[in-house]
Amino acid sequence: MKIVITGGAGFIGSHITDRMQAEGHELLVVDDLSSGFRENIPASVPLVEDSFASDNALQQISVFQPDVVIHAAAQISVRKSMEDPAFDAEVNVKSILKMLNVLQSQQSIRPHLVFISTGGAMYGDTDQVPTAESAPILPESLYGLHKRFGELYFDFYYRVSGLPYTVLRLGNVYGPRQNPHGEAGVVAIFSEKLLRGEPCTIFGDGLQTRDFVYVGDVVEAVALTTAAAASGNAKIGTYNVGTGEEVTVKHLFELMKETAGSSSELVFAPGRPGEQKRSAIDASAIASAINWNPRESLPSGIKLTIEWFGERGKN
Ligand SMILES: NC(=O)c1ccc[n+]([C@@H]2O[C@H](COP(=O)([O-])OP(=O)(O)OC[C@H]3O[C@@H](n4cnc5c(N)ncnc54)[C@H](O)[C@@H]3O)[C@@H](O)[C@H]2O)c1
After folding, report:
1. Is residue 58 part of a domain?
2. Which of ligand 1's atoms lies nearest the C-alpha of 116?
3. DSSP assignment, residue 234?
4. 170 CB less than 6 Å from ligand 1?
5. What digits encode the pLDDT tens for the residues 170-193?
6. How far is CA 133 from CA 138, 175, 236, 245, in A?
7. What angle do CA 61, 90, 54 make, to 5 degrees?
């Protein structure tokens, strides 16, 4: 198949790129490298280094004639979405609208669209934990709200123009290659600090919970979705991709500290706007739809991640 991966040079996108290349698909990555890296993906994979909504990128996507477009490019910082809502909306709303409008106008292509959305920031604070897709959408951040707007555009263009789509709402993804220098990705941030013996900061009381899902499991969900599209059995709709388990950030720190054999201390700082208290998502719908289940346990995923950061630190 011919597959476009936007954001394919980022953390999650590059793992998707690796998997799709290993499966023998013909790829086109579109990434402006605002938070991704060329080195994240094999040199043999063609990269359009531009915004996915640029005329240049959209023209190259049209010429490529993809069977599947995996849209993983995004502004991913919750904090930035609160500080600069217009920028978040530019990338996570307006640019998606532009991309979909161009794709639906190309009558010669009808790719299956896979939108990488968020489960962690979608539902907001709720007592329904783990939270199913049918729960009210009450995001605490503009990042979550704008991701919802994106989902609605995918649904709109399916209903009105027949562009098939699957939305995958991910939990808190962690694993090798996550960028520890943004403020998203607590596992990446802690990994680097623990290995250096530096203090780790928790914003809030540490009792906030998250659903930590290993990147390899997320890639499996994307690969199963893509395979279903190839065989004409694509599932249209919206699916949570998470473990369903609530883990406190404090417990995460303790597990990681022990795994790394680190002497780092824990420091507490005031909580930040846009952060919800509890988050875990119910993935039983995707288990029924395409037989996806998370395989990596938290201790083993954490071990793999810390080992990767340890190796990287030596280079
Ligand atoms: N990391 C998580 O825990 C998590 C959880 C839920 C959803 N997601 C979603 O997964 C996707 C990937 O996130 P990630 O964690 O890998 O972050 P990331 O920052 O590593 O990846 C995003 C990629 O998109 C690229 N990009 C950003 N704006 C672009 C634009 N306008 N045009 C082209 N490329 C652009 C960046 O350069 C980067 O390579 C995002 O859509 C994010 O919202 C991530």
Report:
1. yes
2. 41
3. P
4. yes
5. 999 999 999 988 667 999 999 999
6. 12, 25, 14, 16
7. 25
Q: Tell whether pTM > 0.90.
A: yes
CATH at 252: 3.90.25.10
User: Which residue, by CA, sits nearest to atom 43 of ligand 1?
Assistant: 76
The atom number, within ligand 1, closest to the CA of 178 reads 20
Element containing residue 97 per DSSP (H, E): helix 95-105
Contact 229, 112 (CB under 8 A): yes
Q: Residue 255 falls within a domain, yes or no?
A: yes
- Are both 132 and 253 inside the same structural domain? no
165 catalytic, yes or no?
no
Closest-CA residue, ligand 1 atom 1, reads 173
For ligand 1, whether the C-beta of 16 sits within 6 Å is: no
Q: Tell me which amino acid residue 212 is.
A: F
**How does pLDDT run across 11-58, given as a tens digit for each residue?**
999 999 999 999 999 999 999 999 999 999 999 999 999 999 999 999
The best mutation among 12, 122, 131, 183 to test binding of ligand 1, ranked by most ligand atoms within 8 Å of the C-beta, falls on 12
How far apart (Å, rounded) are the C-alpha atoms in residues 18 and 41?
Answer: 7
- In angstroms, the Cα distances linking 176 to 23, 209, 259, 263 are 20, 22, 15, 22
